Amino acid sequence: MKWKSRNLRELAHIVCGDSEHFRYRSSSYITEFFQDCDLDYTHDGSTRWAWVASRLEEVLALPHASPSVPPDAFIRIIRATLDKGDAQEGDPDRSSALAALNAVLVREGWEAFFDEHGLGQLRHNATNTIAQMANPHRPLTPAEMERRELLTTYLDKCSEDELIEEVLLPLFRQLGFHRVTVTGHKDKALEYGKDVWMKYTLPTLHVLYFGIQAKKGKLDSAGVGRPGSSNVAEIHNQVNMMLGHEIFDSELNRRVLVDHAFIVAGGEITKQARNWIGNKLDATKRSQIMFMDRDDILNLFIVTNLPLPKSALPLPKVTTTFDDDIPF
């Protein structure tokens, strides 16, 4: 990521606290700030804002997944800058600080905001995706564990169409896929073994096409389908249909083949099912098919901080009060 010098200077003044509504940081506190962001930088005593601007430029040059996802270190810097514990007099909710920071970020195509937990987040305006340090294997916070349990309950009761529309579509859009399209799942018209197809643009600007075959319940290798589960042989046939059938990309005005396929299960994909389908695939197709089960969906959905489906949210508590003066 390459920022304009003017914007780097203004962001550096904000980090140093030279701007109104932000905590003033002397040399030692600037070092402490970067250490809190897991960056091994020590201020050398030179002009504060110039030194910070150089460090910010280094951070923005770190490897990152795509233009819409900044380096993790930069996300940590934005969150630390918006820490509500550093609220200044006259700005207790940090709304003025947020506005001042956004005046800089918007010129580079970004916008900061506070989520429902009061944590600073960063949104890429062009793609409307939220920049997240999305490591699905990290320990979850208590608030995230609570949201995970609510989503688990939702997956137990939702239909296959709800799984696709309320969970998978928002998730893959947030992960950077675009042109996410549902292919006639409700009426099975022109589905050809896939429920969703989508595109992913590599940093080299090459485009890969993905298809999703989604099942609500468990995926196993039992000879007869059990209640709430699907047979892996059926999924294998549908995936082969997906990989062999062309899709029409209206942006390019031509037909293309699906490069990779996701098999997504709202329940567990058993070890036997994974082994069976792995043995059925030859070496050329083995890299084309990927698996996601319930745990993968839950962890990715939570760490990317996506809002839960409305029907997954708990009902608000209703308290009834009685006035002793009103006769019954």
UniProtKB/TrEMBL annotation:
This protein's UniProt keywords: Endonuclease, Hydrolase, Nuclease
Species the sequence originates in: Pseudomonas koreensis
Gene Ontology molecular functions: endonuclease activity
Name this protein carries in UniProt: Restriction endonuclease
Source organism, top-level taxon: Bacteria
